[in-house]
């Protein structure tokens, strides 16, 4: 399990999420309170949008609490849209390529959760990627592969639906290959304009997700656990997606059960009825 | 606060302390139970003696639990005498030069504890070193400086007495410079033949130290906290030194109050009585 | 291109190849003389055999010349059989998982050379691996994948033939997928008993390979370039394999053209002629 | 010897010095042409000014050519004033604390060159620092200590003069302690407003320094060697200081022989003449 925080709104310094709050992300790197593991010391990463369509990114393998570079960058960089993450490794060794956020073109993605039996699913998941997405794989985590799978399934055009498809596909092949399936998934992803958050689990234990206004003028912050006690953090219910853009915050249901095969089947049904 | 384990006896694989026990040193790097901090993730190190009089050393800055090199080395290397340490930084940044054990010629040293107000004492401590010991300083920790001070004061000839002098000196200058003094010190050090352990604090809270037979034929293990529940670990009382050599385990009092100035004063007293 | 050195014979300190010679491996990490690139600063690694059937391994990403751990380990560890490597990256980022030697069970492998158009061949190469070998892939280099392919093709039973098959297979799919093929390959690999060296290239430019007696009593050293001027280094011709075991040095031709399909076809031909 | 580049002018992306030019700083990290060493692979660093008076800083120990973070940051960050450096270690191990630029409050500093016999001068140099500057020392390089010495001698109020004093002092104590003196020093430093460059050596071999307009509107770039062949790079003569501010480029002589003692002596002379 990992901890993360994301922001969209008027430009603010990254430190307002990463280092300054009482229960900042760096604080959570050694004492998270609502995670399965209190210590999230297997690296960290930030992705932020500036003048270019692609985000800048900085990732490293030291615990976030002891990295001077992270502190200096968080203090210096202002951004209207950024993701920040501290990692507790489940799948994949401690190395930069395995640290979130993952970036592909203008898109970035970070995740808290895990795919059960990933070792037995990995190969089939990779086989769904076309050459371009396959070659874009740099690390060995389940998270990066979920992101690539969602990109493959159309994340760029219909973000929430493609992400639901990716998770639904993983659950499906897990049932085929292992007789069971469990995905726990709380993630943030963005194209540099709109920030999406999702909270979902196959079972009853979806990792937590909270939202709160921040930075004024309709700005919002999404976090895996609250950054302080003062703010009014709203818990996002499991099975939800959150969409943050210039119009403020919007919410929607998130249901991986909506599968392309099923849809096709339904579409065909009338034809079959003939 | 840090965690450590030391061994002297028949050659055993380093993994018998570092990775194999239920509560191994790597286990303690993320869930120490008798330390002020449960997480000891600011690097680690090992020093072991083989065919040469000088020890080999391997130190790195990742948490011990995620370092593949450490696991492989601990599994491959056998030694009759070695020190192993996982660090929770108090003074000094996370970098290799600040990881224990510290090595000087045939001597190696590691430490759990701290010197209060070290920032105000450091310069006076360094000023006691001759050029050779001054130039041997590679990092910025209080621990390394204590080791160099003890070397300066004669560690090579009278190990326990010189270490007591070094600590007594630090307490003394601390009282002069800050009006108070507190050193907490549980350490292991060796010349490659005899293994010394010390447990001491200026106040009532000396960091814990335990000993138990290990490896057969008079071998012993010293640890900052027990490696398992089965073994009969003996707690070494505060204010003690332990000496492990071919004759087995010996114990002695450890009292930094024995100061060279005082001794000189006492020697002079009769003269003054004239 | 990379630089490497391997040894089999009476136990010697690793430093006799890694740090001591005038043109030691560490020296070659910044001034190799017979390589395409003089600088080999993208990490390094050693694998050595001791009391266990599996080798110990130590790899890291700093330039070999500045790593204190490497110097200390090379000075302390004695071994009758070891591989040592300094890397200049062609495929795969600078991270430990991409540093040679690669280890699988009791086998270890290191390589200097490259596969042209690897990005277009990688997927088909991976598809030949069974689940066990596929899951054993930790990095992203062409070298590690060649090793896994050779293991898949029977390296454990017939080392030279399986390696030839692996290279022949890569050349074959390269011709299919890119219309051309070029593999340059100078490698050392061992099961902990016998040390194998191979020098081969699809074209006329096989990376260099030299051998010389070392360490007395039939010991030998294999290197990508000589470690000094005094020793009588024998250049191993392209298209050769070298086998070093208790009986000394043996040599054989190395021809990837020997393919299983072809052999089967040839064997069947007479039968078909009936 | 190291390589560096500094910029002051309209905000530009850091990549315009660090990665984009034909002979960019990253290119120079493996093939510098006018340095004593072609390889500058012992770490790198950048310091840049944004909205705050203090600079942001990013330093790491990998060769600049293989660090993905550096590439991403250089591509994303725009600044009107920044320093960038690639290191070839002379004094001090490869670690972040020893990488340039060094930062103290709003000031930053980077250096190419070295102090001969630094090991014998270091202690006397450190003894000149007051407690605040002494405690600010994080690494072990001659460069950082020169910077702290200049700060101690008044860099904040009279930058060029204090730097000359610092170098003059080092030459002086070197003559006292070793009977000879040689400082080679090409450096850039700034308070976030004005950019200073200095080229100096005790002997005839001052490391090179070049300047050229860049970024339009009176912007300038200072470099240890030209970044490309097209631009008209002006070589700054040895014994010079360059001052870049809103008024453009100004130059002055740089003479460490101007010593406070001497000045005092001169000031006293008339008095003594009475």
UniProtKB/TrEMBL annotation, chains A, B, C, D:
Keyword Transferase among UniProt keywords: yes
Top-level lineage group: Bacteria
| GO function terms (MF aspect) | transferase activity
- Kindly give the InterPro entries that the UniProt entry links to this protein: EgtC-like (IPR026869), Gamma-glu_amide_hydrolase (IPR052373), GATase_2_dom (IPR017932), Ntn_hydrolases_N (IPR029055)
Record domain Glutamine amidotransferase type-2: where? 2-274
- Name the keywords, alphabetized: Glutamine amidotransferase, Transferase
Q: Does the keyword Cell cycle belong to this entry?
A: no
The record ties this protein, via Pfam families, to: GATase_4 (PF13230)
Name of the featured protein: Class II glutamine amidotransferase
